[in-house]
Amino acid sequence: xxxxxxxxxxxxxxxxxxxxxxxxxxxxxxxxxxxxxxxxxxxxxxxxxxxxxxxxxxxxxxxxxxxxxxxxxxxxxxxxxxxxxxxxxxxxxxxxxxxxxxxxxxxxxxxxxxxxxxxxxxxxxxxxxxxxxxxxxxxxxxxxxxxxxxxxxxxxxxxxxxxxxxxxxxxxxxxxxxxxxxxxxxxxxxxxxxxxxxxxxxxxxxxxxxxxxxxxxxxxxxxxxxxxxxxxxxxxxxxxxxxxxxxxxxxxxxxxxxxxxxxxxxxxxxxxxxxxxxxxxxxxxxxxxxxxxxxxxxxxxxxxxxxxxxxxxxxxxxxxxxxxxxxxxxxxxxxxxxxxxxxxxxxxxxxxxxxxxxxxxxxxxxxxxxxxxxxxxxxxxxxxxxxxxxxxxxxxxxxxxxxxxxxxxxxxxxxxxxxxxxxxxxxxxxxxxxxxxxxxxxxxxxxxxxxxxxxxxxxxxxxxxxxxxxxxxxxxxxxxxxxxxxxxxxxxxxxxxxxxxxxxxxxxxxxxxxxxxxxxxxxxxxxxxxxxxxx
Length: 535
Description:
Blueprint: H1 4-7, E1 18-24, H2 31-44, E2 49-52, E3 55-57, E4 61-63, E5 69-71, H3 72-81, E6 92-96, E7 101-106, E8 109-115, H4 116-121, H5 136-154, E9 157-161, H6 179-185, E10 189-194, H7 200-209, H8 213-216, E11 219-227, H9 231-245, E12 249-254, E13 289-294, E14 299-300, H10 306-309, E15 314-319, E16 330-333, E17 335-336, H11 339-348, H12 351-360, E18 365-368, H13 370-375, E19 378-381, E20 388-391, E21 398-409, E22 412-415, E23 418-421, E24 424-432, E25 438-440, E26 443-446, E27 449-452, H14 461-475, H15 487-505, H16 508-517
Parallel strand pairs: 1-9, 1-10, 2-9, 3-6, 10-11, 11-12, 13-15, 13-16, 16-18, 18-27, 19-21
Antiparallel strand pairs: 4-5, 6-7, 7-8, 14-17, 19-20, 21-24, 22-23, 25-26, 26-27
Helix pairs in contact: 2-3, 2-15, 5-6, 7-9
Pathway: Cofactor biosynthesis; adenosylcobalamin biosynthesis
Function: Catalyzes amidations at positions B, D, E, and G on adenosylcobyrinic A,C-diamide. NH(2) groups are provided by glutamine, and one molecule of ATP is hydrogenolyzed for each amidation.
Keywords: Cobalamin biosynthesis, Glutamine amidotransferase
């Protein structure tokens, strides 16, 4: 065995690991899961591997041990690779604050807000005194490639994830995450297509044919995702695609239900439907527990409720109408990038009044991060919404002032007699006033209303079970948490499933050759190519 097949992460001076870019014909084609699957497959082979995404747009983020904020998808991929997540794995994170602007997080730290036109439209380096992102995406290419090269110096292989489609010809000039990165770093590209949507052959061909000749030289292979049925019926089409493009298909992955991994851009749920990963197992006790999650605008880290959905007998739904709270045993106000906007939404829809009635009746409500802030008495916000002083729901004795500096932390503590670990990502600073029945992590409880800034706390198994027992008691339900549900083990099982998909349904020898040897020679040009002047 040669190359990464036997290196095992020696980290020799001057050594440079192999690399691969996983692109997609569309958003949600499966880039995140394929990247994670390749990482887990390689890690199981003893290969030192790391994930990488140059630029991510997501409201689902995570805090690394060094206090850096990165996309949750990259944290999940790091877990698949069995390495500690770091800011190097996601140097640019964009957190939307509305339809036209995003907070820019550079190397794990927020550096300011920028409009889409400013970020995607600017070119050239920043002038003296400007912030590091002021030159737009082109100015970030150096930072991005330096992070990738550092990972390649310290790992046998780096598996990169693209964003959207590489054939977004309107954005190609300033691209740093798809072919712009592949050309800068000399990476081969595997393009993933979602056959469940239909038109996968046209998508593969059209994606390639819209690229310039220089870009096409990096597109080495295709991979079909979410296939249902007999693969032999697909094979003639794959051969015709190879004849048309000169590129092989290196795998046909079957449609897999309930993978339960952290995706980046959109909900894995219908906003008025059940969480897809909810366990179908019967309840451990006599009753189920029903959890309603308010689908607030700019919802962030909705993955907080995944641990609830993993419990047998807990049914988690996202809702947007007050009548949908009627049969809920627990209402969750999740995190949001727009606390003031979320409050307006809750009031406009009648949800604020319904939640207040629940609290008066002693029925459980949990607020997490922005949801915790909304439950307080008052919010002073000159940072996020710039709305000034806004009245909260008044259900917790808390006043919140938004600070310019973001809190990024990985706290550990105790609640309900159990150890709890979590992570914090917020600008709001909470002042706890008199009147709380008891402290709750960094927040408090009043009656059946609970609030904390800590994301991820429900992943702590003992604490989650203790909390659900309190909820069941308050709701009058004969619900008993299963004593053997271990969320961390469930996540590991799901990551192994991703590795199995690659190992069993992809041409792993072909993938290894691409990772080790780089861009193949002699890949033909597929006309017509990019429009004039596009990279």
